[in-house]
Amino acid sequence: MLEIKNLHAAVDGKEILSGLNLKVNAGEVHAIMGPNGSGKSTLSKVLAGHPDYTVSSGHIEFEVNLRMKNVLDMAPEERARNGIFLAFQYPVEIPGVPNSAFLKASYNAICKHQGAKEATDEMFGRILIEKCKLLNMDEKFIDREVNVAFSGGEKKRNEILQMAVIQPRLAFLDETDSGLDVDSLRIVAEGVNKLRKKDNAIVLVTHYQRILNYIVPDFVHVLYKGRIIKTGGKELALQIEANGYDQILKEFQN
Amino acid sequence: MAEIVKENLTDREYKYGFETIIETDQFPMGLSEDVVNKIADKRNDPQFVRDFRLKAYRHWLTLKEPTWADVRYPKIDFQGIRYYSAPKSKPDGATGPASLADIDPELIETFNKLGIPLGEQKRLTGVAIDVVFDSVSVGTSHQEELAAAGVIFCSLTEAIQKHPEIVEKHLGKIVPYKDNYYAALNSAVFTDGSFVYIPKGVRCPLDLSTYFRINAKETGQFERTLIVAEAGSYVSYLEGCTAPMRDENQLHAAVVELITFDDAEIKYSTVQNWYSGDKDGRGGIYNFVTKRGLCQGTNSKISWTQVESGSSITWKYPSVILQGDNSSGEFYSVALTNHRMQADTGTKMVHIGKNTSSRIISKGISCDQSRNTYRGQVKILPSAESARNYSQCDSMLVGDQCTANTHPYLEVKNKSAIVEHEATTSKISGDHIFYMKSRGVDEEGAVSLLLHGFCKEVFKTLPLEFSIEAVKLLEMKLEGSVG
Amino acid sequence: MTTFSTIQSIQEAWSVRKTGLQDTRRQTIERRERAINLALAKGIPNTRDEEWKYTSLRPLIDRQFDLIDGLRHDGGPVDGSLVARINARLAVNAIPIVFINGRLDLSWPGSEALDSDYFRTLSEAELEEDSTFWDEWQSTQGMDQLFAGINAGLAHEGVVLVLNAEQFLKRPIHIIHLATKDHPNAARINRVVVSVPELADVIVYEEFISMDVLSLKPRVGEWTNSLTQFKLGPKAKCAYYRIVSSPNSFHTGSVTAVLDRDSQLDTFSLAIGSRFARINIDVKFTAPGAECTLDGLYLLQGEEHVDHHTTVDHTVGNCKTNQLYKGILADKGRAVFNGKIYLRKDAQGSEAYQSNKNLLLSSEAEVDTKPQLEIDANDVKATHGAAIGSINPAELFYLRSRCIGEAEATAMLCHGFAEECVMKVKDDDARALLRDRVREWFKLFALTHSPSDPLTTKVIDLAARKILNEEKP
Questions:
Q1: Would you state the pLDDT for residue C9?
Q2: Contact check, Cβ <8 Å, C403/A81
Q3: What domains appear along chain A, each with residue ranges and CATH number?
Q4: In a domain, B104, yes or no
Q5: Into how many domains does chain B fold?
Q6: Is C382 in Cβ contact with B425 (below 8 Å)?
Q7: Which pLDDT tens digit goes with each residue over C321-337?
Q8: Does the CB of A62 have a partner CB in chain C at under 8 Å?
Q9: How many domains does chain C have?
C-alpha cells in the first residue's frame, strides 16, 4: 500500500534522506531502526508532509481506492484523510483547544472526505467514550486542552487515541516508545495492537528493541545515512539490541 | 588578578581610586563654540571633523537634557566641566607617541597599578591594548603584529590623520550627532578614543582592547570609538575603565559606533568599573553613553557583552540596527548596583532586514539602596520578514532597600515575527549565605556560587581573560552587600 | 445639546454642564471642577508622553461630539424587539441597568428588580451624600488621569451601588450602555461607583454596545467616556466583566479599584470593536491578603485601535496579582498593552504574575507592548512575559496531520488562542457570556470581510461548524 522509491529529502538545505526505498503491504508491521541522525524522524516528517522538508527527487506512492497515488502532491491533511497517520515523536501542545473539539474536527473531516454523514456532538461523544474504553484511557483526556500539561506518557497515549478515532490504514509511529516507562509502554503498545487489522499496516520508528516485544514486526529495517542498508526479520532487532549497529555498519561499508 | 580576592573587604571597596600626579595640558572649564574650535585646533582636525563638531555643538544648544530615564541627579553644569585634559608628555598635535617607550614612566606605573602592563616586555600576550588617559590616547601596543594582518588599531586621533577617508565615511553615520543630547555633546567635543579597521576576510589575530582612565579633576571624558568590520571579517574588542575616587561627579559621555558588512562579526565586551561614589552616594562618574552597531551586511553579527559594576549613574543602551538580511544582534549584560548607584541600562534591537534575529539576556543585581532598571526596546519593522527576538531579563534583589525595574518595549509591525520577553525576580539574603555556610561552603564560595548561577549565560560570552577580572569584580562588590 | 470638540474644549463643556446640574451645592460644583482641573493640569498629552507613546489622541481631538444632557431616557417606550434583543444578551439571572445614549432608562423591563437598598442613580447619590463620600472616590489612584477626571467633572448620570456589609447580591448587575443611531455623535459620560463593604459579594457586568453589533449596519461613532470605580472592604468579593463592542465608536474608559484586607477582585476586559479605545485600569492594594485577577482579551480588525493601560500598586504585603492579556490582530488593527505592577517597599510577601500574548494575522497589524515591573521589595515573587507572533507552524502542521484542513486549523488555533484566556474565568455564566461575545466577533469578522480573504473562509467555515460551541461532546 505504500511504496517509497529513491527518496531524497532535505531540511534547511541539508540532505538527510539519500535514496531511500521502502515498500509496505497491508497487514504488515515494519520496524525502522537506526543510529541517531540516520534520518528516521525526517522520513516520518516527509511522509506526513511537513512544510520544512523538501523532496528533491524520488517519490512516495500510497494506495487510495486500489490505485497508487502520488503522496508528495498532497497537502498534509489530504494525506491524513487518505489514511496516513503519523504519531508524533513530540506531540504539539495547543492551548485553548479542547481535545474533544480537536478530535471531532478530525473525525468529521474524514467523514466528509469519505462522503459519510458528519457526526453530531452526541454521536461523537459516544464514539469517543468507546475509544477511551478500548484503549483503557481515562475519559478526562477528552476535556483537557490538546496535550497541554500532559505528561510524556499521556501525550503518547493521546496520539494513540487520535489513531483510534481516525482509524488510518497506515500508522507511522515515530519513536512512540521513547521516554515511556515500562507501564506506559505496555499501555501504548496494547493500544496499537488493538487497532491492528489485516487491511492496515504499521511502521514503528524506534531506537530500541523493547517495543518490538509487544508489537512484533514482520520486517526490521536499518536506516543509515538516509538509506535503508539492511532488512531482516524480527531477529535483526534482537541482534542490534545485543551488538549495536557497528557490525551492520561495517558490513555496509565493505 | 587573583590577589584581589585575598584582600580583606574594607580595602576592596574600590582599588582603582588613586590619582596620578602628572603634569597636564588642559583647557579652563567651560564650553563654547570657541572651545570646540580650540579642541579642533589642538588636534589639528581636518575640515570635515571640525565641521562635524560645530554642527553638533550648534545642534546641542537646541536640545534639552533627557529626563525619561529612571535616574535622579542634580542638574549638570556644563560650564563647570573641563573639555580637554592631556598628560604633557604626549606630544602635541597629530600623532601619538612613536612607541610605547615614549610614554611617561609615571603613566606606565599608573597602568601597572591598574593591572594593564604597557611596557613592551610585560605586555599581555594575545591582546593588543590602546590606553586612553583623560582626553587622549597614550599608546597602542602590538601595532606591527596587527599591521601585518592589515588590521588598523590606533587612537581615533591617529586614524583621523592617517586614514581620513575611512573615518569620514563612517564617523557619525551610525550615531548621528542629532541622535540624542549626549551624543551631540560628544560629537562636539570628543577628544580621542579607539579606531579599529578590519579589512575584508580578515580574522583579527588578537583580541583588541582599550583601557579608559579618567584622572584629572573636573574633567569630562568624551571619547569616541569607531570599529569597521569589512565583509567576512571578525574582531573581538574589549574595553575597561576606571577613575579616581573623588567627591564630585564627573561626566563621561562616550559614543561607540560599530559597523559590519556582509558576513562580518564584531564582538564587543565591556567591563565598566568607573568610580561609583561612596556608600552615601557622594561622587562617582555619570556614565551617559551612546553605543550602537549597524549590521549593514547580510549575515553579519554584532554582539554586545557588558559587565556594569561602576558609575554613580549609568545611562546606556548598546543597540544593534539589523539592516542586512539574516543579520543578528546580541546583548548580554550583567549590571550590578550597590550603595546609591543608579543604572538605567538595556538595549535596542531594530529589525529591518529579513530573517534578522536578536537575543537579549540581561541580569540586574541591585544591592543596598541602589536603583537598577532594565530598559530595552525591540522593534520589528514591516520589512523585517521572519524576524526573531528573545529577551530574558532577570533581577536579583539583595536587601530590602533597593529597587529593580523592568521596562521592555516591544513594537511589532510584521506578523511573521516571533518576539518573546520573559522576566523574573529573585532575592539573595544573609539566609542564603548562612544556608550554604552550614553546608561547609565559605562566604566567598557562597557568593560566587550564587553569582555564577544567576549570571552564567552572560559570563560564558566574555573573553576568558576578561571574564576572570569581571567576575572577581562582581564577587567583591556583592560580598560587601550580602555579608 | 451642545456640540464641542471633545477634549480641547473641556472647560467649555464644563460651563454647559454646570448649569444643568441637579445638585447645585457649592461643594459639588467645586469637587467636579477640581476633578477637571486635575485632569487638565498636565495638558493634553501627545505621543512624547510616556503614557501615550503608542496612542495618539488625534482621532478623538479631530471630532465634534454632542454633549448629552438630561438624566433619563425620554424617547418614550423602547421598541419591544430591541428590549428582547438586549435582554437576550444579559448574563444569566442578571438585573439590567440600561443607559440609552447616555441616559438612564429605569423603566427598562427587568430593572424594576433593582433595590433602593443598594442602588441609587448618580444624581440621587450626589444630592444625598456629602463631600466626604465623594472625596474618597475622587482621591483614588488613577483619578489624576485625563479621562477619569473628565468623567468625574462632566458625568451627567450614573449608577451608585453601595452594598451593606455581608450583603450578597445573588443576581448579577448587568449595566448596558447602548448607543443608537438617534444620537450618532453623542458624547456619553457616565459614571459607576460600586462599594462592596466587609464580607459583601457582587458580580457586575458592564457592556458598551452600539447597534452595529446587533444589526451590523455601519454608522458613525459616538464617544463614550466611562468611569467605573470599586471599593472593596475586608473579605469582600467582586467580579467585574467589562465588554466594549461598538465598532466605529470612540471609547475612553477608566476603572479604579481599592482593595482592603483579604478582599478579592476579578476583572475581565473584553474589547471587540472600537474605532479607538483607551482603557485604563488602576488597582491599589491598601491592606494585606487581597487578591486581584486582571484578565483581558482584545480582538481587532479593520483600523481598530485598542490600548489597555493597567496599573497594580502593591503598597502593602502579602497581596497577589494575576494578569493575562491576550490579543488577536487582523487587518490594520493596532493594539497597545502597558501593564505596570509596582511592588513597593512594604509589599513583602507579595506575588505578581503578568503575561501579554499577541497573535498577528495580518502584515498591516501592529502591536506595541510594554509590560513593566517596578520592584522595591525583595521578598516577592514577580514574573512577567510578553509574546508576539503569528499562527504557530508546528501547531498548524499537527492539526493538518490529523485531517483538519488548513483553513479550519487556522480558525481553531485563533479560537484556541482566545479561549485560553476566556477559560480562566471561574464563573460558569460569565465564561459562557464572554465566549458568546468572542464568537460574535468571529462571525462579524466573517461578514465584514470579502469571501476571498483567506482568513474569512477559515472563519466562516469555523463559525458554521461552531467548533468550540460544545462544552462537552
A1: 82
A2: yes
A3: 2-91+169-191+199-253 (3.40.50.300), 95-149 (no CATH)
A4: yes
A5: 1
A6: yes
A7: 999 999 999 999 999 99
A8: no
A9: 2
